[in-house]
TrEMBL record:
PANTHER family for the chain: STAGE V SPORULATION PROTEIN AC-RELATED (PTHR38450), STAGE V SPORULATION PROTEIN AEB (PTHR38450:SF2)
Transmembrane segments annotated in the record for this chain: 6-24, 83-112
Superkingdom to which the source organism belongs: Bacteria
Organism: Oceanobacillus piezotolerans
Keyword Nucleotidyltransferase: no
Pfam families the record matches: SpoVAC_SpoVAEB
InterPro entries: Spore_V_AE, SpoVA
Keyword Membrane: yes
Protein name according to UniProt: Stage V sporulation protein AE
Key words of the record: Membrane, Transmembrane, Transmembrane helix
Length: 116
């Protein structure tokens, strides 16, 4: 059943993004930013973790999870280190994913040539 709910919740997040493109005519940057902010707000309200527990990868794979990670890390570190923890917490939690994206992007650029 977890696969079903992951598919449904992940699909709904994607449908929201597609509606933002098609109906509201938002640019990809605006849509991306809006979904990250939505994930941040849901985590700030304490609603994203229960969604992850319910839907698994359906909630952790879409871009809303990046917003969740930013706020979640900032809040955890703020409890330990105060205001400086807000900044360091965001970087600590998301650094592995961002670093991997940079490394694999560079490797891809070295190994493959664009068609032109």
């Amino acid at each position: 059943m977890i696969f079903f709910w992951a598919f449904v919740i992940g699909g709904l997040i994607c449908v929201i993004g597609q509606i933002m493109f098609d109906v509201f005519k938002l640019s990809p940057a605006h849509t991306l930013t809006s979904l990250v902010v939505l994930g941040s707000l849901l985590d700030g309200l304490g609603l994203y973790e229960p969604l992850i527990d319910f839907a698994g990868a359906g909630a952790t794979v879409p871009i809303t999870s990046f917003g969740n990670s930013l706020v979640h890390g900032a809040m955890l570190e703020a409890e330990k280190h105060g205001i400086i923890g807000v900044v360091t917490g965001m970087f600590e939690v998301t650094s592995a994913g961002i670093s991997a994206a940079i490394v694999f992007g560079v490797i891809g650029a070295i190994l493959f040539k664009p068609k032109g």
